[in-house]
Amino acid sequence: MINISSSVQIDEDEIEMTAIRAQGSGGQNVNKVNSAIHLRFDIAASSLPDEIKEKLLSKPDSRVNTDGVFVLKAQNYRTQEQNRFDAQERLVAWIAQALVVKKTRKPTKVSKGAKEKRIKAKKQQGERKQLRKKIL
Fold it and tell me: What is the average per-residue pLDDT within 29-42?
C-alpha cells in the first residue's frame, strides 16, 4: 500500500510501471539500458474515494488521457530504481495536491478610515497640481 495521506491509500497493484529506454544524452548507456520508467495509473478503476477521482479527472492536465489514465515518464536519473521511486513520488504528490481544500474567500469592505485617508490624499494631490498652474 502507498500512503498518500493518513486516510487515503492506493494499492501498488493499481500502478503499472514499465521500463523503457530514456531519451537524451548519455552515450551508449542510453542505447543499451532500459532505465526510464513509464508509469500508468487508471484513475477510474482505482480504490480512491469518488470525490478525489472526480477532482483528478476534472483537472486540466495533459498527463491524463481521454480514458482517464494518468501517464507519467520518469527519466531524470541514470538508474531504473531511482526513476521508479521518482515516478511513484510524483504520482503521490499529484494525488495529494487534489486532497488540498482551498479556503473560501471572505468578501471584505474597505474601512471608513481607509476611504477618508484616500480622499484626503487625492485632495492634497489636487491642491498641489492647482499650485503648479500659471497665474493669469
Answer: 76
Show contacts of 62-69: CB within 8 Å, 24+ apart.
63/94, 67/42, 68/42, 68/43, 68/44, 69/40, 69/41, 69/42, 69/43
Range of the domain at 38: 2-99
Q: What 3-state DSSP class applies to 125? A: helix
pLDDT band at 112 (very low <50, low <70, confident <90, very high): very high
The CATH number given to whatever domain includes residue 53 is 3.30.160.20
The reported pTM is: 0.62
Q: Which amino acid is at 47?
A: S
Gap between the Cα atoms of 102 and 111, Å rounded: 26
Of 92, 101, 103, 102, the closest CA to residue 5 belongs to 92
73 neighbors 40 (Cβ within 8 angstroms): no
